[in-house]
Amino acid sequence: MYPIRKVEQLNNEVTRMEIVAPQVSAKIKPGQFIMLRIDEYGERIPLTMNDCNPDAGTVTIVFQAVGATTKRLRHLKAGDCLLDFAGPLGRPTGLEGAARVAVIGGGLGTAIAYPQAKWLYDQGAEVDVITGFRSRELIILESEIAAHSTRQIIMTDDGSNGNKGLVTEALRRRIEEGAGYDLVLAVGPLIMMKFVCLLTKEHGIRTLVSMNPLMIDGTGMCGGCRVKVDGAYRHACVDGPDFDGHLVDFDDAMSRSKLYQSFEAEAAGHECLIGRD
Amino acid sequence: MPELPAGQRIDSFDEVALGYAFEDAMNEANRCIHCPTEPCADGCPVGVPISAFVAKVAEGDFAQAYALVKGTNSLPAICGRVCPQETQCEGRCTRGKKGDPVAIGHLERFVADWAFAHPEEAAQPLLPLCKEKRVAIVGSGPASLTCASELVKQGVLVTVFEALHLAGGVLSYGIPEFRLPKGLVAHEIDGLKKKGVKFELNSFIGRLYSIEELRESQGFDAVFIGTGAGSPVYLGIEGEGLNGVMAASELLTRVNLMKAYEFPRYATPVYAGRHCVVVGGGNVAMDAARTARRLGAEVTVVYRRTEAEMPARAEEVHHAKEEGISFQMLANPTRVLGNSEGWACGLECVRMELGEPDESGRRSPVEVEGSTFVIDIDMMVVAIGSRVNPLIAQTTPGLEVSPRGLVVVDGESCATSIPGVYAGGDVTQGSATVILAMGAGKRAAAGILAYLGHH
């Protein structure tokens, strides 16, 4: 069992949770993920690490209540336990050697982009973090990112923070201003990562994206997480989750991401019955 | 052996074979003529004393029969169900030369099931554990469980590291409930725990600890790698990424490990179409086909050779046919056709004919020109084999692997290229049977005991 140490609502949709898992905490690196299962009846869901504190033996995850499992997860409290918490899984992001980096976070992706920015910044790299949200109320991790970046640019779809536009517009502006990036990291919705990659390809900037497809085991066994990269299917769980964004087939990934949508509705409808039988 | 009627089976995941009553078992055991040369025992990869245990069953001394089986086979309830007896013990049975061989597998299952139902009478003495030697076992499938069982019998402290939340490997995630009830697997694993074997779940070796770290910082004296061959293989044809197309391992993991057949009580869903094609001819293909059938699909198995070349057990093919699964032999998929929403809607195949025998001795199939045809589908399961997950090899410097990624071992001791590190089962031989993996686990345990200087 893995006790939950702290639960915090970052906004109406997004929750930050600190889990006690000393072995995982001692090992996990930016870009790697964990798989958790709430209880005996639960799904295994992958969540990429947001932060870790090896001294306290904790791993921090940030999630949005979108699926049946994350909707249940957000109702757990400090002191409750998760039945399973396996990690680290996946490869750490290949950040070594990058000196001028743009880290792009779209919505919840910001939570996963944060540890990469932090690691790079702590290594002495110049790090611009560009994040995008639907509106001002949904902005997350602003102070954390401010403490671990050279520059933070926050965009909103509705302009409610006074900075209307997409992350790609901010990125384009920075590139044109001569930011001279040698690496761009993009974490967020597939459509966002696709357009970031189209832009960086134009400018010949190496770009890594963090893929978040369906997974069941997370250890290279089921093949559910296959992502088309450079014309061949790779397993995001063991070969990724980060890939060279210029080689990822985002249209294929978007089509595959719809596979289990109809089940989510059914599972959500069942949610209210859990624990009553 | 009595079976669940086919009509009842396709609506449930209950076990198909129902087991012997006492009299049935004793009558069957009495058919054994106890050949002095015991050809049956030569066919057993773990060396079960078949004639002796069958004699005890005939006498009605089931406790003694169980003790004899369990002394050599750590997982008899499992082997009695999933071993290919027809090519092993029963394939060499003298009675089989004229008529049916003695049903050794059914008898093995009978004594194991009897023991589960009579735990006090079947109890085995617990041996003291010596605290000096510690062995780490990576993976918890049949090779690992056997290795653990043999080591703990000799008093060695054993810790099994399993990546998933449930131990058992392929016994838990791969073989369906209707062929191998998961309660039995859990029972065997509980037995090992009682003997002192420690299970560390959620521990993916290669990421959490490397093999080297297990020996250095974690302080294990030796390591056994029994991680199997669980990485799916695809056909490599156009359209394989379409929705509705999955590897057998995805279907089976969802259903067996995550119990998706009880969705939404269990939260993991499984997509099941109405017209499913399963590609492949092995036991995994039969498991996938029979699983898809139980989820409500009409199922066709597409195989590129003929039934005679199918690697699946005859019993599995027979059960599949009884359950209404149809077979398209001598057909090879060439392309998956998709609709505008990204879902598979057809499988284009080409007719094959058998040519000359290939290196495996099977006649290799050759395409018949201009024979393309399309099967309407909304679900497709690829069950054409699996390969070894490369993670252990990638993270273990000095570990010799073959060009196919198999860990290279000494055939007798199962020693790898690294002193103190042993391996066995599918990770060294490619996808094979439970019993061959168990045989390797047993040899590896002997190799490890010799390495540790244990007497």
List keywords for this structure.
heterodimer; A: 277 residues; alpha/beta; Elongation Factor Tu (Ef-tu), domain 3; Rossmann fold; 2 domains; six-stranded mixed β-sheet; five-stranded antiparallel β-sheet; 8 helices; 30% strand; globular; disordered C terminus; B: 455 residues; Fumarate Reductase Iron-sulfur Protein, Chain B, domain 2; FAD/NAD(P)-binding domain; 3 domains; five-stranded parallel β-sheet; 18 helices; 34% helix
Give an overview in words.
In chain A, helix 5 runs parallel beside helix 6 (190-202) and helix 6 (190-202) packs antiparallel against helix 7 (250-256). With 277 residues, chain A is α/β, with parallel strands linked by helices. Chain A folds into two domains: 2-89, Beta Barrel (Elongation Factor Tu (Ef-tu), domain 3), CATH 2.40.30; 100-256, Nucleotide-binding domain of ferredoxin-NADP reductase (FNR) module (Rossmann fold), CATH 3.40.50. Chain A has eight helices and 16 strands. A six-stranded mixed β-sheet of chain A has the order 11-10-9-12-13-16, sandwiched between helices. A five-stranded antiparallel β-sheet of chain A has the order 5-6-2-1-7. The radius of gyration of chain A is 18 Å and the shape is globular. Chain B has a five-stranded parallel β-sheet. Chain B has a five-stranded parallel β-sheet with strand order 6-14-7-8-9. In chain B, strands 10, 11, 12 and 13 form a four-stranded antiparallel β-sheet that branches. The A-B interface holds A 23-24, 27, 32, 37, 41-44, 68-69, 83-90, 216-217, 219-224, 226, 228, 233, 235, 238, 252, 255-256, 258-260, 263, 266-267, 269-270, 277 and B 163-165, 173, 201-204, 207-208, 230-232, 234, 240-243, 246-247, 249-250, 253-254, 257-258, 263-269, 271, 341-342, 389, 391.
